[in-house]
Amino acid sequence: MNEPELLLGNGAIARGLLEAGCEVVTSYPGTPATEILEEVLRQKKAAGIDIHAEWSVNEKVAFDVALAAAMCGKRSATAMKQVGLNVASDSLLSAAYTGVDGGFVVVPCDDPGPQSSQTEQDSRLFALFAKVPVLDPSSPREAREMVRAAFEISERHSIPVMVRPTTRVCHARQPILPHPFDRPERRVRFHRNPARWAATPRHRLTLHQELNTKLEAIRAEFEESTWIVEEGPGSSLGIIAAGPTYGTIRDLLREDGREVDILKVGAVYPLPVQRIARFIARHERIIVLEEPDFAIEIQILDRLKVEGRLTGRVPSHGELTPEAVAAVLDGIAVRSVAPTGPAPRLCPGCGHRAAFFALHTALPNAIVAGDIGCYTLGINQKTLDTCLDMGASITLAQGFYLVHRRDGLDTPIVAVIGDSTFFHAGIPALLNAVVTDSRIIVVVLDNGTVAMTGHQPTPAGSGASIELIARGVGVRFVETIDPYRVEDLVALLKRARAFTRAPSPDGGVALVVARRPCALIEPPEVKIPVEVVADGCDGCGYCLKFCECPGLLMDEATGKVRIDPVRCIDCGNCIPACPWGAIIERKAGVIS
Amino acid sequence: VTKDGRDVQIVICGLGGQGVLFVMRVVAEAAMIEGRDVLASETHGMAQRGGSVDSHIKIGDFAGPLVRVGHADAAMALDPSRIPDAKAFIRSGGLCFANAPGQVEGALACDAAGVARSEGSGSAANLILLGFASKSAPSLFPQPLSILAALERRCRPEALEAGTKAFEKGRGLA
């Protein structure tokens, strides 16, 4: 039965990997890349295919594991969000030199907007920097086909190849007609060759030269590539478009009944410059539409007629939505159309919320360095001061502590990090804090899962222990608590603070594990329904500000807080959040 | 119109947790069942924690994933707070369907949340509104039988009966 399946772009990429006989796929969860490995796991199970797919502990680990498979002649791939490639970049740049024996495809997913990321960085520029070829799909269907093409290029030239989708490809859905799966038949064969795999600087020079030769050969192939497509009636304006901006401009021209030539560029680096130059020569003016930055535009040799992000014609930040592209086409300023709805919030019953409330209560003047995950939303509770990148809570806290101590200040410094982020990038950071005797309080919010991206597993499922890791790197204050015990957590944080202030050798780094399963997976087993005592609430808004649960509403008519029975899940964590004691447990059958 | 093969663009606006992606999936799958080409887009990530979630569905010959503001044939606001956004998406002559208890200027309102609550299934408001919209504008949505077939594919077995009931309930309100 060969019926189309309505696949997510990430599902189409997964399909492409399986169809191409890819035998090892690794990833670390992160929007918009997460569903690539999820779909590999789902589809391989559905099809009964035996390939290795793993959630690695971080993107560098993921990259190296998959790379090694390709060093042994297998087809392998690694997928990650764009900032994950920063973590893996040390390996990427070196692997470009050594090359691979089997096909190796790297799929970093960019996030123009950004919708769910800390930067709008362009992974295609990373491809230029690392000197690896990059393909830029415009749709889920094209992404699936490009994965196979990328394996072929990779094997033909012994080089890692990048397929770079953006959010609008990853999270688009399209009917995908399945092709048969290639059987992974490449037997493992590791050719010992230290001059290549363990190259010293002298050999590295040779490898660099070889890499440049490969890139020129690939550029020549791309000059003839079917990933470069020209369409249009022969207009004076020509548009060079890549990624989903191709579809956006094509639909927009049709809607408006305009006829303009488009050159769709799917092979972005090494850019087929002759082919591009011929298109430019036939037009009076050229506009380049690409995301998120200017990987194509910057490679065009003669940019006299070319307008794009570098010339200011195209905005230098933000997503190229249909509205933005329309404005670019008409040469007018882009009008922003941000949605008007509410901002994201932690879920009702989330243990993180209780922990943040306790943290604010125990150490209201602390500088709190946050991290990447659901708990970044602790910012809503006025409790977080920073969010830089994976693991930076513990490292920034050390820097904050260092400079405050230098200036004789005793400000409490706290790092808040999730369990998966702790395993990903927190361990060397914690080790450094111990080595430098940085008197910080590390709070690990452990919900047992990677919740933000849809509940992927963490190493704890395989027996990894945050407490033992902390003790192993030399932390002597390690305590674990259920954050629902808000008052006990307040007391524990005060004890942790005292420990960080004790003179050496008694004091040191303090680590508190606030452990409570994600409320979406395990809602609270003990139900504590609450009510607001009408004459007790003076409408001060303290609970709305610092507990900040979606289940608490300000009743505009009465000026008092009330409970939203639809959203409230009876965790009872708002009871301590009323300074007047007006939020109380509702006893069965009693109406106050 | 889907029946005679004209292209259709639909936008669904809501909040994380309201089932925006589910409704999108059902409509897109129903269009696919009718043999149409579909290009749809979803919102994932941070926004799913109660923030704004939009989904765009383009049925027919399209290449771009997003619907342009002012160009949707139909829009659905699953939450009253998203009605202004949904209205902004529709073209002149397009239809906006809103989950709201009272009258809404420039939109066809249906108290999907209220009905869902009284039926004891608060999470089914999305399918009630889909039923209401698809009955009110049969030329813009896939046929009810295709939508029911898509529901059968997408619903967990234990939720299928409630889902089908909610969809039919919504059609009855139109």
Description:
The complex is a heterodimer of chains A (592) and B (174). Chain A is α/β, with parallel strands linked by helices. In chain A, 36% of the residues lie in helices and 17% in strands. Chain A is built from 18 helices and 23 strands. In chain A, the strands form 6 sheets. Chain A has a 7-stranded mixed beta sheet. Chain A has a 5-stranded mixed beta sheet with strand order 9-11-10-13-14, with helices on both faces. Chain A is globular and about 75 Å long. By secondary structure, chain B is an alpha/beta fold. The mean pLDDT of chain B is 92. Chain B has helices at 20-33, 83-89, 112-118, 125-136, 144-154, 157-173, and strands spanning 8-15, 38-41, 52-59, 72-77, 90-99, 108-110. In chain B, helix 3 (112-118) crosses helix 4 and helix 4 crosses helix 6. The longest helix of chain B has 17 residues, at 157-173. Helix content of chain B is 39%, strand content 22%. In chain B, strand 4, helix 2 (83-89) and strand 5 (90-99) form a beta-alpha-beta unit. Chain B is built from 6 helices and 6 strands, in the order βαβββαββαααα. A 6-stranded mixed beta sheet of chain B has the order 2-3-1-4-5-6. Chain B is globular. Chain B starts with 7 loop residues before the first strand and ends with a helix. At the A-B interface, strand 8, helix 10 and helix 12 of A face helix 1, strand 2, strand 3 and helix 2 of B.
